[in-house]
Amino acid sequence: MPTPHPSRPASVPRSGPLLALGCAALLALGAAVAPQAAAQPATPTLPRAAAAADYYAAAEGKSGTALKDALHDIIKDQTSVSYAAVWDALGDTDEDPADPTHVIELYTGTSIAKSRSGGNPGDWNREHVWAKSHGDFGTATGPGTDLHHLRPEDVAVNGARGNKDFDDGGGAVSGAPGNYTDSDSFEPRDAVKGDVARMILYMAVRYEGEDGFPDLEPNDKVSNGSAPAIGKLSVLKEWSEQDPPDSFEEHRNDVIYTSYQHNRNPFVDHPEWVESIW
User: Fold this and answer.
1) How far, in Å, CA of 60 to CA of 56, rounded?
2) What is the pLDDT of residues 4-55, one digit of tens each?
3) What is the pTM of this model?
4) Which end of the chain is less crowded, N or C, counting CB atoms within 10 A of the terminal residue's CB?
């Protein structure tokens, strides 16, 4: 729906002493107020570059397993979010930049009202990009509620993805142009292929068998079932390279870091680390 234009004030007649005095008073008041309004500080921007500079200090100069271990030690220090709180959090992390009352669905790319969260057809719900059955962690606080891999998605499209691994190919997904699926895999639209890859690889670094949760690892196959694994790693690496982080993904990382979990997805800040580790 088009945004209505602000209402314009009615024109003021040029005659009449009382009206003239009123206009003069309003002009004087405006002149007095304007400098005060202009002097108010602007809203500070989220500190992506500043945070990343010190945040990853312990990982500098490392590669391979040493880099993965260092990043794990950095990002495991996080604040947990309850599954109920995920609804409101996604309203912030995935807010439509063009409409603060909407969120952007991951696979469809559709802008949908935040108020339409739920489980009915046409609603959006909470998609676990690392399918919660892969490791059987469910919605437990921890991997089941980690905002770095939870995204808004249309109920039906979320169901079409199910707990499938990620790979290229398949038939078109109804209601989600550019997405494809078959019996054992799901391919997201091009604009978020890298997002999906970096979310999966974040989970593999963050959850290493500590905290009572399984050791999550990517592998190069599909049909992983309930094993704490998701594939295909070779395809995810290609996706991360083909679709580098954009401003939406970077902003999302900042919001999670600043307002919720206080940890970051290192592959959004340093996509080159994907190849360095895997």
Assistant:
1) 7
2) 333 333 333 333 433 333 333 333 333 333 333 333 323 334 455 555 679 9
3) 0.82
4) N
